[in-house]
Amino acid sequence: MTTGKHLSDMPEKLVFRGGFGFKKKQPNVLLLLPKTKGPIGIKNFKKLIKDNFNLLEYDDVATEKLGIFSTSNITSLKNKALAVNIALEKWKGIKFHIICHSTGCGIGTFIAKNNIEECESLILISPWNRKDKDFTSIQKNRVNNSKNLETVMYLKSEYNLLYSAEYIHKYKVQFNNHILNQKNKSVDVVNKEKRLKSIIDCNIGDELHKLKQPKLFINALDDKLMKVYHGIELQKICNNSELITLNSGGHMLTETRTNDLIKHIKKFLNFLGR
Fold first, then answer.
1. What confidence tens digit (pLDDT) does each residue in 37-67 have?
2. Is residue 123 in a domain?
3. pTM score over 0.85
4. Which of 29, 40, 183, 213 has the most CB atoms lying inside 10 A of its own CB?
5. Closest CA to 125 of 212, 56, 237, 32
């Protein structure tokens, strides 16, 4: 069995953190998270995942910092998944589960499609189904804000979209400090537009309903980005699926509802006998 290694030696120069098979009795998990995070961050979420599973995390940010394989140049989530899938060849034949959040749900869907034998289940946090007028309008507004607003106002608009007012108020000092630390940095408008267009163009429900693997959808009632109806629609069209809707937490559930996510993920995988 192949043990976990960094994949910086791969010809494609994709980078992973962690690896499968470290703790034999624990399930293997491929973690796919978006780049966006707030001032509190997701270190606690990733720590809890590591404590309970063999974690293989695709490190999108580190990959681009290396300057040897920039997935920002890939304009579709399907092609991005194919690029990640090349690196997964190193673990060919090893069973794993996919935990993905937001943009990662699109990438995870195509990875599952390309690894029918290896991927045993999908856990999709804050997913979307397909583009519609409301969804497209929200994403286009984000692009326009990145072009037209100064950095401080742009960040505030993003946080108001991604987090609940209660959460922002609770951590207002951290949010304000985070904004102040970023105020002199310019927004990468080009890559922002590419990434959001790749989401708009990806109707993951069209692919998910064809997949036989068990699926767990987790969303929140107050998610203003991937609104609650997306999860409801996905659960309706996907066989062998379950939907958990949290009463609050906004879009960034890995940050705002960490313990609840871990509880539901463990329960789901225990039910599958993994």
1. 788 889 899 999 989 998 888 766 544 544 4
2. yes
3. yes
4. 29
5. 32
User: Over the stretch 193-229, which tens digit does the pLDDT of each residue have?
Assistant: 888 999 999 999 999 999 999 999 999 999 999 999 9
The residue to which tokens 């997306």 are assigned: 230
Q: Is 54 among the domain residues? A: yes
- Whose tokens are 């993003």? That residue is 158
Give 246's strand partners: 220
CATH (domain of 122): 3.40.50.1820
Q: Is 217:226 a contact under the CB 8 Å cutoff?
A: no
Backbone angles phi, psi at 191, to 5 degrees: -70, -35
Structurally, the chain folds into a number of domains equal to 1
Residue 215 belongs to what domain range? 16-132+202-271
